[in-house]
Specification:
The chain is of the alpha/beta class. The protein contains nine helices and ten strands. Strand 1 and strand 2 form a beta hairpin.
Length: 300
């Protein structure tokens, strides 16, 4: 791990050294783009940009429901904002493959399954410039991954009712990514207990407790919910109900604050638990989405 120089924040040299240490570990083309290509038979797939550090390797796509109806509300699903959070990407794709069609009579859909493909391939939280895309949904954005998605969503004629952003919390948050953050910014980062189980991060400014509970109840059918720690919290925040904490999404520049949707949440799967498989992690993401949508259909 590249460290800061004399406890100073990284400059360009340190960032380049960090980038030189990153390696390709899996294929965005084989594992993600191939699945997006297969969805073209049933959905409208459009490219909304490409990452300029390797535009041919990293095109970016939106999947939209057909027969777009401006009289309907629209649901946004995003995955892979942190590319290393695997079930976020594949949960978004699996939802489109297996469940989205059940809801098109009620809503339009926009799905961005892999916002950070370089992060997906290198199993990274940051982009190649050592910037966290999930702190970059602000204007101007310091991360093109976030900026390009902001432009794409902003260009759609839609009234967004819901945005679910699919994430994971992994053991490497403590062993790799928070130490890297401490080195990059020369600011000590506390190490927190990684919760063993699924949880949600709602919008502190508009928490929507019943909506969040519906998702938790749905996920319980697939996997276990993270318990609160000894302080009554999860990752340093007090829980508001079982498996739910809230963050100020827009002020923090989180993807979940991208729209003005009244119903927003970030999912957090724990793939390192001995109690779950990779497949169960994907299914938990789908269950969170369908649980939230089922509640919306009946209550909004």
């Amino acid at each position: 791990m590249t460290n800061s120089n004399n406890n100073q924040p990284w400059g360009e040299a340190e960032k380049k050294n960090w980038l030189a240490e990153q390696t390709i570990k899996r294929s965005y083309s084989e594992q993600v783009l191939s699945k997006i290509e297969a969805l073209k038979a049933d959905y409208d797939v459009s490219q909304y940009g490409a990452l300029d550090y390797d535009a041919d390797r990293y095109p970016l796509f939106l999947i939209k429901s057909r027969n777009w109806d401006t009289g309907k509300k629209t649901v946004l699903i995003t995955g892979g904002v942190h590319g290393y959070e695997t079930s976020g990407v594949h949960g978004a794709l699996r939802f489109v493959e297996t469940a989205l069609f059940n809801y098109t009579q009620h809503y339009n859909f926009v799905v961005a399954p892999c916002v950070s493909p370089w992060g997906y391939e290198t199993i990274n939280r940051w982009n190649p410039y050592a910037v966290d895309p999930n702190r970059s949904f602000k204007d101007p954005s310091p991360a093109q991954e976030a900026g390009l998605l902001m432009q794409a969503i902003g260009s759609i004629d839609a009234d967004f009712i819901c945005h679910i952003d699919l994430h994971e919390t992994t053991d490497t948050d403590n062993t790799v990514f928070r130490p890297a953050l401490a080195a990059r910014d020369a600011i000590e980062q506390s190490v927190w207990d990684i919760p063993d189980g699924f949880y949600l991060v709602g919008n502190e400014e508009n928490p929507q407790d019943d909506f969040q509970k519906a998702m938790i109840d749905s996920v319980k059918k697939i996997t276990h919910i993270a318990p609160a720690d000894d302080t009554g919290g999860i990752i340093g925040k007090k829980i508001t109900q079982e498996g739910v904490i809230n963050y100020p999404t827009k002020p923090l520049g989180l993807c979940a604050g991208l729209t003005d949707s009244p119903y927003t949440t970030t999912t957090e799967v724990y793939p390192d638990s001995p109690k779950v498989t990779d497949e169960e992690c994907i299914l938990a993401q789908v269950a969170a989405v369908t649980g939230g949508l089922d509640w919306l259909v009946g209550n909004s």
